[in-house]
Amino acid sequence: NKTCLQDESLVVQLLRYRVLFIYFNMEGLKLWGSRILSGVGLSGDRDRGCFYRRQVEGGGDPWSVYSKETFLSHRRKDVLMMTPWFAPIVWEGTFNSEILNEQFRLRNISVGVTVFAIKKYVVFLQKFLETAEEYFVVGHKVNYYIFTDRPDEVPSVALKEGRNIVVLKVPNYARWQDVSMRRMEMISNFSQQRFIKEVHYLVCVDVDMRFNDQVGVEILSDLFGTLHPGFYGARRQSFTYERRSISQAVIPRDEGDFYYAGGFFGGTVIEVYKLTKRCHEGIMMDKDNGIEAIWHDESHLNKYFVYHKPTKILSPEYLWDDNMGRPQILHKRRFLAVPKNHAAIRN
Ligand SMILES: CC(=O)N[C@H]1[C@@H](OP(=O)(O)OP(=O)(O)OC[C@H]2O[C@@H](n3ccc(=O)[nH]c3=O)[C@H](O)[C@@H]2O)O[C@H](CO)[C@H](O)[C@@H]1O
Ligand SMILES: [Mn+2]
């Protein structure tokens, strides 16, 4: 009797399989047919690298059809595209924004931007926000968290749907180095208290910057850093890591992968919380020991990334300074330093 039942269910399973098989074949034919009807064959698809998006008939999740051949062009031979720990390095020409946007849209992702405008640096906010609305993670939910001691001087900038400005009043510090370093403390505190409840990812950037081209969801990952424009092709020996062993930010001569910029990092809220908390602790220990790391928060960030490898790395397209010229490998300048008079703006 028992064997009989088992046999029966096997037959039922086989029948189901056949029904599914026929169904999938029909779907394939419909798809093929619609391409012919719309006058675009597979070869045209391949040649032009077209990207199709269709809705499953009768509703359901959107799905994508595209030529697999276009993958072959998503690579660069002139730059490093992958770290030895398999973290992608994001350069123009290595990714497809349409696929990525669809993936992040389906997950309904929201992004928090932390930006500090303390004392005179409020003057950078207008251009920063205007250009961010044009280029930063367009089409997704964004909260701009503006940390400032001058809430009244935050400009009002027209925002697209799903995007908000949140002004957070915070203390200032006399020295610009302290203003810069204390960002780690404030980001970690607010991450724990607030950001964790409001956004999925955090992007932490300098304010003396403007967006100049698309900076989209391709930047997002659990933990990401950006190659410093002055050192992306440099050897380890020339990185300006902190070398004094008394500092918590010290990196031995034979360690370290890249030199990361202090002005652009991020990840999930929990990862940014861990990073900023650790960096702040290092900064405080240094203060107690009467030392300050050579490049302040940037030195501590670099130390953190040696032992907590980023899961994605942004190329210098994402943090460029025109003082560095316009090298061939740089196909886009997405986020640019705004020239400033250091002496005048920092005092
Ligand atoms: C592009 C880049 O990688 N920049 C890094 C670089 O310096 P920068 O020379 O770019 O430093 P900076 O003067 O832009 O200061 C860093 C940030 O602190 C804030 N700020 C500073 C002073 C002030 O009075 N008010 C104020 O709001 C503001 O958000 C500014 O963008 O090295 C610094 C540490 O030495 C930081 O790691 C910066 O992130
Ligand atoms: Mn800066």
From TrEMBL:
The active site is at E298 (nucleophile). GO terms for cellular component: Golgi apparatus; membrane; vesicle. It is a single-pass type II membrane protein. The keyword Nucleotide-binding does not apply. Its cofactor is Mn(2+). GO terms for biological process: carbohydrate metabolic process. UDP-N-acetyl-alpha-D-galactosamine binds at F116, A117, I118, Y121, D206, V207, D208. Keywords: Glycosyltransferase, Manganese, Membrane, Metal-binding, Signal-anchor, Transferase, Transmembrane, Transmembrane helix. It comes from the Eukaryota. It is found in: Membrane. Mn(2+) binds at D206, D208. An alpha-L-fucosyl-(1->2)-beta-D-galactosyl derivative binds at H228, T240, E298, D321. One of its GO terms (molecular function) is metal ion binding. CDD domains: Glyco_transf_6 (cd02515). Binds 1 Mn(2+) ion per subunit. Belongs to the glycosyltransferase 6 family. This is ABO, alpha 1-3-N-acetylgalactosaminyltransferase and alpha 1-3-galactosyltransferase. The lineage of its organism: Eukaryota, Metazoa, Chordata, Craniata, Vertebrata.
